[in-house]
Amino acid sequence: MNFELKSLDLAGASAQSADAFILLVPAGFKPGRDPLAALVGQALKAGDLDSQPGKLLALYRPAQAKAARMLLVGVGDGTPRQVRLAVAAALGALRGGTPAVKRLLLCFAGAPQRGALRAAVAAVADASYVYTTTKSKVEGRSLARVTLGVPKLAEAKAEFAQAAAAVAGIELAKEWANRPANHATPTDLAQAARALAKFPKISCQVLGPREVARLKMGSFMAVAQGSEQPLRFIVLQYKGAPAAQAPTVLVGKGITFDTGGISIKPAGEMDEMKFDMGGAASVLGVFRALGELEPAINVVGLIPSCENMPDGRAVKPGDVVTSMSGQTIEILNTDAEGRLILCDALSYAERFKPAAVVDIATLTGACVIALGAVRSGLFSADDALAQRLLAAGETAQDLCWRMPLDDDYAEGLKSNFADVANVAGRAGGAITAAKFLQRFTAKFPWAHLDIAGTAWKSGAAKGSTGRPVGLLLEFLLAQQAPTRSGRRKA
Ligand code: BES
Ligand code: MN
Ligand code: ZN
């Protein structure tokens, strides 16, 4: 799908041909003198169109536009959230219609607020995404071209470029997370990471079992030892700034399937544990977007990847392993495997002398209970880092919520047989998981995103959301030095 940005007032939009034309109408819309604006004005006056978000008025071959199908949609105050909801509602109304919409025109009747254009682009992409990789009859996305019309081009350009790159990243993340585990092994993920090295400034290195053993990643290796699939440790580097500039390191949990291991999970919905590499997929997606935007920053992506399987060789409850940090860990529950692979990746991150490390993981069912599917869990002892991530989430409409990290929460991780246990009780499970990870982050500012509730949807719409690629990309780009024009380069 191709996005293009055009400078269009309503008269200009009328003259554009398209299969469908969505016009976003804000509250307080002042109709101009052209026929389309007059039509909108009449509809508002008559009460047939409401500028409240999500309210739709459908027209067919209106004399005031070239497009066959037209939707007037209210966007209320025009906040990014309202635009997201309005565009999703409009695409929902167009869905299933014949002929399918191939060319879409989407216009803002008033100048979009900051973040609104990005929200519109993201919502169009999300609503039209179709997974096809493991289907025999390929009926892909029908939408081929999307033209976005804004009153003033210059102001919209940088945001549009970021939005289009974010979509490419989100869709790469969706693709890999959606693939079933037999089509997305650790080796396949490593191949996907290697493919990203074709973009400028990106390099990729993949470590296998021997190298990981040499690094003494005993915790990561313990999780992988029950699987026939060899583990992979993926190191991606994006170098857009001088080497003297400390990088931000992203660490993505890459469990390509989580059976729970010997502490095996119940059968119901276990298929969804193919999504347990959603953190890894988000790191791949961010690099895809960086490759397109080429910002002046340095970023490292680390992905420990393996399956968590029960087997004669699998790690057993009670086993004690030695992590790369030297700390010993009593594995009381083999289903708390994410933290076991992440802790060694966090220790590995030290070598980059990072400005900050953010890990992204589908880590706990407890986080799903706490925050549901709306906000990811954010954990950080660093207030400034936490604020930047929260703000990036708001701007990108990819929300997170800060959770506590009081030391009292670590009490339950005490072990009689090792330095630390890998689980505490059921209470506060998302927080105790974060407290476990925190033990491995003494050398850098660190934040943890628990995306267990936000990385995928269950039920009829089962599938990856591509989150939190939007949040992470915004977080990274916000670090760039502002350009002379005062706006940062996209
Ligand atoms: N991948 C799961 C977390 C998960 C569960 C994400 C359900 C989304 C939906 C993780 O590896 C896990 O199994 N966590 C356990 C930890 C427990 C054993 C302390 C959990 O949350 O039940
Ligand atoms: Mn698990
Ligand atoms: Zn898991």
Give your account of this protein's structure:
This protein is of the alpha/beta class and 490 residues long. It has two domains: 2-151, Leucine Aminopeptidase, subunit E, domain 1 (3-Layer(aba) Sandwich); 174-477, Aminopeptidase. 33% of the residues lie in helices and 21% in strands. The chain contains 14 helices and 20 strands. The chain has helices at 10-14, 35-46, 80-94, 116-128, 153-178, 186-196, 209-214, 218-224, 278-293, 338-349, 365-371, 383-395, 429-438, 469-477; strands at 2-7, 20-25, 56-60, 69-74, 103-108, 145-150, 202-207, 232-239, 248-252, 254-258, 298-308, 319-322, 328-331, 356-361, 376-380, 400-402, 420-421, 446-450, 456-457, 463-464. The strands form four sheets. Strands 7, 8, 9, 10, 11, 14, 15, 16 and 18 form a nine-stranded mixed sheet that branches. Strands 1-6-5-2-4-3 form a six-stranded mixed sheet. Helix 4 links the parallel strand 5 (103-108) and strand 6. The longest helix has 26 residues, at 153-178. The chain binds ligand BES, manganese (II) ion and zinc ion. Zinc ion is lined by residues 255, 258, 276, 337-338.
Features:
20 strands, 2 domains, binds zinc ion, six-stranded mixed beta sheet, binds ligand BES, 14 helices, 21% strand, 490 residues, alpha/beta, Leucine Aminopeptidase, subunit E, domain 1, binds manganese (II) ion, Aminopeptidase
